[in-house]
Amino acid sequence: MKEFHIISSGLSLITNAQKAGVLEGKGVREEEYWDNVLQDGKKIDDLFDFLAKNPKENSAELNTFLRVVEGKEPENIEVYLFGTKTKSNELCRRVIERFLKEKGFIIYTPYEVSGYFWDAQFDESVAKNEFQKGISELLDRLIYLAMKKQQEGYKVYFNPTGGFKAHVIATALAGFMTNSEVYYMHEEFNDVIFIPLLFYLPKGKEIDVLKEISDKCLISGDEARTLVNKFQDEVNRLQVYGLIEVEKDQTSNSIYRIKITNKGKLIIEQLRQIIK
């Protein structure tokens, strides 16, 4: 199956390169300096060589991505690497994209969101508004893109490793809302962590089941077993997404109680408000 990886890009490559003495220790706000680097083929080649020497160690984004796609055919994998509208982030993305292309991965047209620092050069209030607007537009775009690729038969992954915290949150949320795989690796972890689905909107008969359990807070005995027998798939999905808890007798392994979780209560109340 073809894969589509949506990756939030940060500045770990630059930070690591500065520590190694490959780049000067300039701040990310210094747009003029990073613009000059972007025009300097020698510096870009040096940064690329630094990345290629140890991509997992020198780029947080690649550290997770390369582990997830290890052993898979690059020509079956498309990458959507987005970041902020800043020269420093553009530099990171340009070098990472070059590395991925040389490895045979397909690069999807990138997307830039407000970099804040870039806009703040002109007007602080405009920068804040553009940043907020950019986050909202980013979430909408990522959801659209994930759904589009899923309809085309792709397995969609979200990698919210890099970028501003707001971008990381939006990336992960888009993954949860589209039932995609979301993976991440903290610096202290030794392996990739696939984050369980933290957000799910029930639909169809799932809503009916959730309402029935919510009205009573919990059901037990024969009533619980009857509900499971009648709506096996729906109950299983609601349990997987953490909206209900199904408890079984440890001796007989028979279901004896089903109760709604706090997350389930929140979602069903929101749905009731929408229906009203």
SSE diagram, text form:
Layout: E1 3-8, H1 12-19, H2 31-38, H3 41-53, H4 55-58, H5 60-68, E2 77-84, H6 87-102, E3 106-107, E4 112-113, H7 117-120, H8 124-151, E5 155-159, H9 165-177, E6 181-184, E7 193-195, H10 205-216, E8 218-220, H11 221-230, H12 232-240, E9 244-248, E10 255-260, H13 262-275
Parallel strand pairs: 1-2, 1-5, 2-3, 2-4, 5-6
Antiparallel strand pairs: 6-7, 8-10, 9-10
Helix pairs in contact: 2-6, 3-6, 8-9, 10-12, 11-12
Could you characterize what this model shows?
The chain has 276 residues and is α/β, with parallel strands linked by helices. 54% of the residues lie in helices and 16% in strands. The chain has 13 helices and 10 strands. Strands 1, 2, 3, 4, 5, 6 and 7 form a 7-stranded mixed beta sheet that branches. Strands 8-10-9 form a 3-stranded antiparallel beta sheet. Strand 5, helix 9 and strand 6 (181-184) form a beta-alpha-beta unit. Helix 10 packs across helix 12 (232-240). The longest helix is centred in the middle third of the chain and has 28 residues, at 124-151. The two termini are 41 Å apart.
